[in-house]
Amino acid sequence: MTVHQDDPRTVLAAGCVLWRRQATPGTTPHSGQGVEICLVHRPKYGDWSHPKGKLKRGEDALAGALREVREETGHDCEPGPALPTARYLANGRPKQVSYWAAEATTGTFTPNREVDRIVWLTPPEARARLTQPRDRPLVDALLDALHTT
Questions:
Q1: CA quadruple 135, 139, 69, 34: dihedral positive or negative?
Q2: pTM of the prediction?
Q3: Domains in the chain, ordered, with CATH?
Q4: Per residue in 100-145, pLDDT tens?
Q5: How far apart are CA 61 and CA 75, in angstroms?
């Protein structure tokens, strides 16, 4: 099934592939070396994913993505390029999630009801830990975006 934003049943959401530089001398984010990606664990679903969530009524997608990162990870971030949009069915309804690359700047994680853990992983580790296969190409999209910026 193709999900369209103009379908009134479509749930609109946004998120980020949140990354930071490893403190390892001689590595560069452009090569994928020296990059760690943040994944969140949602106890309600028992899954690992990129930070994301539903948009509030009238909320801009990028603003919603940054809000969700802050709420779920405790981190502020500097948004980068847009990444591929995910479209899929969730609980029988079409869902569209807009994503951006975002570099973590400041913040500290505090476990909460929605997210009880976060992890910072290398790109291969993040790809392997992600629960949904549809989330894995976003790791490659992030690395491509870092390589071209």
A1: positive
A2: 0.88
A3: 11-148 (3.90.79.10)
A4: 999 999 999 999 999 999 999 999 999 999 999 999 999 999 999 9
A5: 18
